[in-house]
Write a structure and sequence with these properties.
ArchSynthase1/Queuine_TRR, 483 residues, TIM Barrel, single chain, pentosyltransferase activity, metal-binding, 5-stranded mixed beta sheet, binds zinc ion, 6-stranded parallel beta sheet, transferase, alpha/beta, binds guanine
Length: 483
């Protein structure tokens, strides 16, 4: 078992965990700032003050430059970067995917990462882009698997070893790849080649990649979403079970004069105000920031602050059991994110398997909330309620109906449930007083299913004024509806 990772708290398919590395324990979910060993405006030694626990850098870049290579081989990676916490090293696969060819073998780059004392090493996987022909995805996956197995045979306790999951945009290949890696017991499982999906706002396809990969992995292992550094999608990715992130975004966006927020990105030249209270933003006006000689460094610093701020909020949401509320909020900032939310809830049956049975009050945040795993869980358990004799289905506020064998409350998006559960999770949900069509539809579907499961009972439905939905016609055929 993967005893290097201990999960301490869960919400949806997300979790807070502790990852043990040779240079200490990190609490996940967390984001690793990407350190460019050639040019780095913000020093690695400063990264902790932003909230970083672990860094990631590129062993291929280090190995290609004599000065860096010599120092790393002699004094170690931690001395080279002047950082004594955990450092993950990538292999040069990304350079491979951009330039097509690199001058190092899998064996050499694994050996190099071991020699310089990396905490988590990465083999030379092939990041197969989205939408390639299936034959290419399959053959590259085969090569990736061979290299990963070779690497597994070379690494013992000296460093942790990552096993990247590839498979392009073929969910079955992603799942199969994950299942194969699972047998070889890697320490961390990055989901690879998702950068092109994020660059083109294909967040719904990203959800498919995450869920299909996760389905093939042991649920107790740490998962890294390779190249994901925009805080806008942390809540979503964490809710789907990603634990590690890496951000080159903080620096790359800054280079383009872009100012990151958890709700999206601004161009600094379009900002009249700085909507942030980090140390940079409280000590500069928007005009000062635009005109500063070190504008890009200021932006990089701000970008890092908001990146870690969002990750702390995600973690607090897991503690409180309202991560899905945060996901729904974040996914309303861009239509492509809204599509991702809908895609995520198309997997509510899978999320439900991981979601704790009881947590804090369910807040209805919009039509998508009707598809939440908690609602699906209730739908799946309707056959546990046995109802005989007469039954009233009434609004929670109307308590005057006494002469029935069964007292049921109707509350959207759940439907009808025994009145004594009204204060029990998730039926104690905070909902809108007039349900929208999605919520009412889900509740009526469940109510109809419950009635059909109890054909010998006689149901009376007390309909609140103003509630309209096509399913009332169907309900009227199996229950008496009173206005
Ligand atoms: N960085 C971003 N994506 C990838 C990937 O798929 N593989 C590796 N090794 N590094 C990456
Ligand atoms: Zn700021």
């Amino acid at each position: 078992m993967s005893s290097i990772f201990e999960i301490t708290q869960k919400d949806a398919a997300g979790r807070i965990g502790k990852l043990k590395t040779p240079h200490g324990v990190v609490e996940t979910p967390t984001v690793m700032p990407v350190i460019n060993p050639n040019l780095q405006a913000i020093k690695p030694s400063e990264m902790r003050s932003f909230g970083a626990q672990m860094l990631i850098t590129n062993s291929y870049i280090i190995s290609r430059k004599e000065e860096l290579r010599e120092k790393a081989m002699k004094e170690g990676l931690h001395a080279l970067l002047d950082f004594d916490g955990p450092i993950m090293t990538d292999s040069g696969s990304f350079q491979l995917s951009v330039y097509g060819d690199i001058e190092v073998t899998n064996e050499q780059i694994i050996e190099f990462q071991k020699t310089i004392g990396s905490d988590i090493g990465v083999p030379l996987d092939i990041p197969t882009p989205p939408d390639v022909p299936r034959s290419r995805a399959e053959s590259e996956l085969e090569t990736t698997l061979e290299r990963l197995i070779e690497a597994r045979g070379m690494v013992n306790d000296e460093m942790l070893l990552a096993g990247p999951v590839q498979g392009s945009t073929y969910p079955d290949l992603r799942q199969k790849a994950a299942e194969s890696l699972r047998e070889h017991k890697f320490d961390v499982y990055p989901l690879g080649a998702v950068v092109p999906l994020m660059e083109t706002y294909r967040y719904a396809d990203l959800v498919d990649v995450i869920v299909s990969s996760k389905k093939g992995l042991d649920p107790t292992v740490p998962v890294h979403l390779f190249g994901a550094g925009h805080p806008m999608m942390f809540a979503l990715a964490v809710a789907l079970g990603c634990d590690l992130f890496d951000s080159a975004a903080y620096a790359l966006y800054a280079k383009d004069r872009r100012y990151i927020t958890a709700n999206g990105t601004y161009h600094i030249d379009n900002l009249s105000y700085l909507p942030c209270s980090c140390p940079i933003c409280v000590s500069h006006t928007a005009e000062e920031m635009k005109k500063a000689d070190n504008c890009k460094e200021l932006l990089a610093r701000h970008n890092l602050y908001v990146t870690f701020e969002e990750m702390r909020l995600v973690k607090q949401s897991i503690k409180e059991g309202n991560l899905l509320e945060l996901v729904e909020q974040r996914c309303r900032t861009h239509p492509r994110m809204l599509e991702a939310l809908k895609r995520m809830y198309s997997y509510s049956d899978w999320i439900e398997e991981h979601d704790p049975a009881s947590k804090s009050t369910f807040f209805y945040c919009g039509p998508e909330s009707a598809q939440r795993p908690e609602v699906l869980r209730f739908s799946n358990k309707l056959d546990r309620f046995t109802i005989t004799g007469s039954a009233i289905i009434r609004p929670a506020s109307k308590k005057e109906f006494k002469n029935y064998d069964n007292d049921l409350v109707f509350k959207a998006p759940f439907g009808a449930f025994p009145a004594e559960l009204i204060e029990v999770y998730p039926f104690n949900a905070e909902v809108i007083s007039t349900p929208d069509v999605e919520s009412l539809g889900k509740a009526l579907e469940n109510t109809i299913a419950l009635i059909e499961l109890n054909p010998d009972a006689k149901f009376t439905f007390i309909k609140e004024e103003g509630l309209e939905h096509p399913l009332f016609e169907k309900l009227g055929k199996i229950a008496e509806i009173k206005e």
